[in-house]
Amino acid sequence: MRNRSVVFVIRNKKILMEKLSYPSLGNRVFYSIPGGGIEDGETPEQAAIRELKEECGLDGTIVRKLTELYNNNRTEHVFEVKVPDNQEPITGYDPEEAENEDPPLKEVLWLALDEISEKDRAFLWGYGLIHIEGFYDEVISWGDTISYPKN
Description:
The chain is an alpha+beta fold. The protein contains 3 helices and 8 strands; from the N terminus they run E-E-E-E-E-H-E-E-E-H-H. The strands form 2 sheets. It has a 4-stranded mixed sheet, covered by helices on one side. The mean pLDDT is 93.
């Protein structure tokens, strides 16, 4: 498995997200941040910016590296990225899925935390969302209530 780079792009407290659906996962819809595999000879930073351009049509600049995760025998590099305020995302493509008649990338959109399922949010926190300005304060404001989903 190739190592990956993923990016957080935040605008007006909303997170740039991708709506995805894979036949191999039962076509369930989920939301994730843009990213993908690092190509041979490419740095994690270069991959992050390339993936953002391919999938969302945005020109980004790395603000900082948030974390590295070790998952499924690969490293995932996570970056905070800034894009110009006058650019709006478009639903792009994944070159690895070019031959796929039903590509997994369905839409790119800005979502606030309260518009993202608890399950999909869990992955965002794991990627380091809490380290981006404003999101730590958001978590602290939740208090001590236990909100774990109950059966």
